[in-house]
Amino acid sequence: MGTVTELNHPLVQHHLTHLRDSRTSPHIFRAQVRRLAILLAEQVCRDLPLKTKQIETPLEPMDGKVLSSRIGLVPILRAGLGMTDALLDLLPTAEVWHLGFYRDEETLQPVEYYQKFSSSPPDVVFVLDPMLATGGSASESINMIKKWGASDIRMLSIIAAPEGIARVRKKHPDVPIFVCGIDRGLNNAAYILPGLGDAGDRIFNTL
Ligand code: PRP
Ligand code: URA
């Protein structure tokens, strides 16, 4: 089974609480998504390989270290877009490829509506989606990223339900999952409890 890393950090608890609060405005909500995405990025990048780069400081030459992998970010539209800039701040040379899914409100199944991938996949792909609820959107996205040819795939979510984690781990045991918090479960409409409501609508002010 794939590993699950739940961030356990006072900063995560603090920013997650402000994110969840129904009184948080879209403006602050976006800032909180961004802050939490930075904290996720710190964890998910821990084992990225480095190569030596010779530079000269103002005082002397030295062998520095820089990232050696081709890194791809795949935000799942729409809500994943809210995490993208945070990752790009830390990984400014990363490639951004897109997948569009929405959940059919009746069947709760993910429906694909957009895909933009290059001819060759990056060395490592970070899938970005703040919400991992039933896990349908994440599992389908990972299927498509595997068909693209990527093998090192990592899932980054802000809040997950146990059901979604179980589904992704079962279907994709090779994909590690990084989350800020794992919540109690899902309601009848497959919303995460206590959750934060609809992440896409809160990011884009389309409630
Ligand atoms: C949300 C969320 C995930 C999906 C999670 O997207 O951003 O993509 O639901 O649910 P699942 O794990 O049950 O598949 P939504 O369909 O609301 O689209 P949006 O991002 O455009 O709001
Ligand atoms: N998508 C969301 O945005 N929120 C949930 O709780 C579940 C799916």
From TrEMBL:
<dbReference type="GO" id="GO:0004845">
    <property type="term" value="F:uracil phosphoribosyltransferase activity"/>
</dbReference>
<keyword id="KW-0547">Nucleotide-binding</keyword>
<comment type="pathway">
    <text>Pyrimidine metabolism; UMP biosynthesis via salvage pathway; UMP from uracil: step 1/1.</text>
</comment>
<comment type="similarity">
    <text>Belongs to the UPRTase family.</text>
</comment>
<dbReference type="GO" id="GO:0006223">
    <property type="term" value="P:uracil salvage"/>
</dbReference>
<feature type="domain" description="Phosphoribosyltransferase">
    <location>
        <begin position="7"/>
        <end position="206"/>
    </location>
</feature>
<keyword id="KW-0328">Glycosyltransferase</keyword>
<keyword id="KW-0808">Transferase</keyword>
<dbReference type="Pfam" id="PF14681">
    <property type="entry name" value="UPRTase"/>
</dbReference>
<dbReference type="GO" id="GO:0005737">
    <property type="term" value="C:cytoplasm"/>
</dbReference>
<keyword id="KW-0021">Allosteric enzyme</keyword>
<dbReference type="GO" id="GO:0005525">
    <property type="term" value="F:GTP binding"/>
</dbReference>
<dbReference type="InterPro" id="IPR000836">
    <property type="entry name" value="PRTase_dom"/>
</dbReference>
<dbReference type="GO" id="GO:0044206">
    <property type="term" value="P:UMP salvage"/>
</dbReference>
<dbReference type="InterPro" id="IPR029057">
    <property type="entry name" value="PRTase-like"/>
</dbReference>
<keyword id="KW-0342">GTP-binding</keyword>
<protein>
    <recommendedName>
        <fullName>Uracil phosphoribosyltransferase</fullName>
        <ecNumber>2.4.2.9</ecNumber>
    </recommendedName>
</protein>
<dbReference type="InterPro" id="IPR050054">
    <property type="entry name" value="UPRTase/APRTase"/>
</dbReference>
<dbReference type="InterPro" id="IPR005765">
    <property type="entry name" value="UPRT"/>
</dbReference>
<comment type="function">
    <text>Catalyzes the conversion of uracil and 5-phospho-alpha-D-ribose 1-diphosphate (PRPP) to UMP and diphosphate.</text>
</comment>
